[in-house]
Amino acid sequence: MTSRDQAKYNEFVKKYGEEKVPSQKLDVTKAKYEFMRWKCLTDLYYLGTEVLGLGKQRRKVYPKFHRWLCHVMSLDGDKMIIVPRKHAKTTWMKAYCVQRILRSAGKLRIMLLSKTELLSALNLASIKRFFALPLVRALFPEVVPDPGKDYKNWAKSTTNELRLKDDINSVSNEPQIIALGSAAKTAGLLNIDNRIMYTIGAAARKLKLLDADVVIGFPLSVTGKSPYFDR
After folding, report:
1. Measured between alpha carbons, how far is 146 from 154 in angstroms, rounded to an integer?
2. What φ, ψ does residue 37 adopt, rounded to 5°?
C-alpha cells in the first residue's frame, strides 16, 4: 500500500470507524468498502488484478509493464498506444471501459471499433462478463444491477449494445457501450490493404474538416506492400 493509499484508507477509517457494510455479499468494514471503491475508480491496475480477476491469469499480467500501460491509458486526452501482440492490451482496454463506466456512474457513452463486427461483439461480451462479476456488483450496486439470466435484467443487452440501467432523468436512454465492425472486413475480402485509424479522425476534427463527436479514418492501399504494417 502506497503512502497515498494509506492516507486515503485512514481517512475512511476516521470517518466510518468499525462500522460494517450492510450487505451479505461483502464481509468488510465500511472503511474498507469505500477504500476498495475508491481504488477501483482511481487505479486501473488494481481494478483489473484485484476485482476483475486478471491477477489470477499470469499470462495477462506483467506487473511492471501493465502498471505503466494502465497509467498511460488513464491519462487525460487523446492517445495512441502501440504495443506488440501477446501483451493483453485488448484485455486491459476492456478493463478500462469498465472503469470509465463505473467512474461516470453509467452516464458515459463508449464506442468499440474493431476490424469486424464479430470481433467487436466478442469484446463487448467480455466486458459484460466483467460487469456481471459478483464483486463488481457488490462494490457498485448503484451502477451495475443484477444481470439475471443471460443479462436480461439489464436495460439493454444485445450482441452489439449494452445499457446496464435506465436513467429516469434522461429523455433518451442510449447504450452505454456500442460495438461496431467496419468496412475493413469487406476491403479485406477484396484483398485491399486497410487499417482503422483513429488519429486520422482526430486530425480531421482538429482541422474542423468534419463536425462530429467521433470521426474514424479508414485508409485503403492497393500497392505491392501494405504501408500499414512493418513486419
Report:
1. 7
2. -60, -45
Enter the pTM of the model.
0.76
Give DSSP secondary structure letters for 200-227.
HHHHHHHTTSS--S---B--EE-SSS-T
Which cell goes with 124?
463487448
φ/ψ bin of 88: left (φ > 0), alpha (ψ from -120 to 50), beta (otherwise): left
Give the DSSP H/E element, type plus range, for residue 110.
strand 110-113
Q: Confirm if 55 and 49 have CB atoms less than 8 A apart.
A: yes
Q: How far apart are CA 166 and CA 85, in angstroms?
A: 37
Report yes or no on 225 lying in a domain. Answer: yes
Residue 150 lies in a domain: no
Q: Which of 86, 153, 97, 149 has its CA nearest to residue 120?
A: 97
Is residue 108 domain-resident? no
Mean pLDDT, all residues of the chain: 84
Ramachandran angles phi, psi of 67, nearest 5°: -65, -40
Domain that holds residue 214: 183-231
Q: What percent of the chain has pLDDT over 70?
A: 89
Query: What pLDDT, in 10s, does the model give residues 127-158?
Result: 999 999 999 999 999 999 999 999 999 998 98
Instruction: Let me know if residue 152 belongs to a domain.
Output: no
Total domain count, the chain: 1
d(CA 140, CA 231): 44
